[in-house]
Every structure is written in C-alpha cells, then in structure tokens.
Specification:
Number of domains: 2
Helix content: 10-25%
Enzyme class: isomerase
Radius of gyration: 22 Å
Structural class: alpha+beta
InterPro entries: PsdUridine_synth_cat_dom_sf, PsdUridine_synth_RluA-like_CS, PsdUridine_synth_RluC/D, PsdUridine_synth_RsuA/RluA, RluA_PseudoU_synthase
Function: Responsible for synthesis of pseudouridine from uracil.
Organism: Lentibacillus juripiscarius
Catalytic activity: a uridine in RNA = a pseudouridine in RNA
CATH topology of the largest domain: Pseudouridine synthase
Oligomer: single chain
Number of helices: 6
Order of helices and strands: EHHEEEEEHEEHEEEEEEHEEHE
C-alpha cells in the first residue's frame, strides 16, 4: 500500500504517521516489522524513526497472510450486500457456520470468502469482524485485509460498530423497552454454553418490544457489546429464551433454529471514515413463525 506525503505531515516520524493518521495499531506495526513485511520511502527501506518529507512515497508491504489448515477456498454462493477494497458485507443464511472447525471443516462462510478472494487474485485470509452463530441469520461484517481489520476491531471495542437484531422470544417482557446489563462467561463443564456470571465479561443488550402474541414476543435488539451468544443468554437469563433455541431453553415446536436475525449493520468505513448503513429483510422462517400466530400478535 502506498501513500504520498503532503506538507501537512512533513516532519512526522513514520511511526506517528502510521499510528495517528492511518490508525495502524501497535500490534499491526510490530507484525509488519517482525513478521516479514517492509516499510519503504521512495523505494528505499526505512525505519519507523524516519522523518517524512513533502512528496515522499511511503510504501508498507504487509507480510504474507497465513491461512489455517481448514482455510481452504471452496466456491459457493455468497449473498454479497456490499464490497470494496477494504470491507465485505454479507447476508448469512441460517445453518451456515462462519469459521471452519473440527466438526465443520467445509461449507463455511470463510471457505466461500476465500474462494471469492481467489477469483479476484487477492492474497488475503478471512478476517471476520461481526461473527454470527451457525443458526443466526443476517448481516455480517468482514475486513478484507489486516489494516481494515485492525481499525474495525478497535471500532467494535469502542462501540462504533452497531448491530440490530430481530428476535422472537417466549413469553412477554414486563418492561417493553430497556437494557439488559449482565456479565457473561463460559458455563462450567461446557465448551459451548455461556451463562450470566459475576466473573464474566461485561455485556450490554438494548431491546424494544415490536409485537406481542399469546406465547411469543418480537423484539428489536441492539448490541452494545458482542459477547458469544449474548442475546440468547441474556433473554434466557430473564426467563424468555428465544423461540427454537433449545440450547438455552427455547422450544423448537414453531421453528427449528433460534429465531434471531441481524437486520441492521452500521459502521464507519475503516479507510475513508464514511458512515455506512445496511439493512436486510426478516427471513422467511421467522416471518412464517409470526404469521402462524398472526391472530395472536399485536403491535405495541
């Protein structure tokens, strides 16, 4: 990647320019220096202590990206909502795993994205920013390269990556609008389940009731933090598990997966800073769940 230096940045150390103006993290810079990358000025290798001059051509060559053993390109249909040189926004269907594992080594979003990159001649690996559970559908944000991933990962920690979900929960909420603020950690004896626990990590979920029926409620949920299974754990903790979520106490009679869908995604572009907003419709199975109870649902 190349940048032409202007008078505005003349005299700055390369280190400061990368960190302050290009939002390179210290971890990323360290990886470039010690991982096989190079920093060049006018095609000559320089250190981070070089002071930039007006007209200099700064080049950062990133180390070759290493792919895990299961990260094998596999051509498959991808519902691409948005794509540019830095980011990829996908609409993930329910039932598709995000990243390969021992139990799901193929057919994942990562496999498909790597094949998509391969077709474009891009040497990148898979950098997911907003991961979705296997049975959760909706919008997913992926950073294409290390630089955009570094910026977006920090943005997510800072709370400037916003996600909203539709969830169908069992029962009714006493408060029709509110915030669930309970720490979440791994459940003892399980490598999958999470639970509300005093020694867990901070987790904040905002919600608002949209429609109510005799046995279910449609809620619009906004995440302030992104803990594993956060929405599922928080509503289950309150005695209102998601419909279809048998892992956390939900019944599967009406739908065979957790009724959870990421319908809105908002973030600032990692390179341009432009605000980007995306929305997708509610999926068919959740619509059918609501329609099957149509007579019993009412707007609040």
């Amino acid at each position: 990647m190349n940048w032409t230096i202007t008078k505005q940045h003349e005299g700055k150390l390369i280190r400061h320019y990368l960190q302050q103006d290009l939002q390179f993290s210290r971890k990323l810079i360290k990886h470039i220096i010690h991982g096989g990358g190079e920093i060049l000025v006018n095609q000559t290798k320089q250190t981070l202590r070089y002071r930039l001059r007006d007209g200099d051509l700064l080049t950062v060559q990133f180390p070759a990206e290493q792919k895990g053993s299961h990260m094998v390109p596999e051509k498959m249909p991808l519902d691409i909502v948005y794509e540019d040189d830095a980011v990829l926004v996908l609409h993930k269907p329910a039932g598709t795993v995000t990243i390969p594992s021992r139990l799901h080594s193929t057919g994942t979003i990562a496999n498909g994205v790597l094949a998509h990159y391969e077709e474009q001649g891009l040497p990148y690996t898979f950098h997911v920013v907003t991961r979705l559970d296997r049975q959760t559908s909706g919008l997913m944000l992926i950073a294409k390269h290390r630089w955009s991933h570094s910026i977006l990962s920090q943005a997510q920690k800072d709370g400037t990556v916003s996600r909203s979900y539709y969830a169908v929960i069992e029962g009714h909420m006493e408060q029709k609008k509110g915030t669930i603020q309970e720490p979440i950690g791994r459940k003892d004896g399980s490598i999958i389940e999470r639970t509300v626990t005093t020694d867990g990590k901070a987790a904040i979920t905002h919600y608002e009731v949209v429609r109510e029926g005799d046995g279910h409620t449609l809620v619009d949920v906004r995440l302030e933090t992104g803990r594993t299974h956060q929405i599922r754990v928080h509503f289950s903790h309150l005695g209102h598990p998601l419909a279809g979520d048998d892992l956390y106490g939900g019944a599967t009679a009406c739908i065979n997966r957790q009724a959870l869908h990421c319908h809105h995604l908002q973030f600032f572009h990692p390179i341009s800073g432009e605000p980007l907003r995306f929305s997708v419709a509610m999926p068919r199975d959740i619509r059918q769940l609501l329609q099957s109870n149509e007579r019993n649902f009412s707007s609040t």
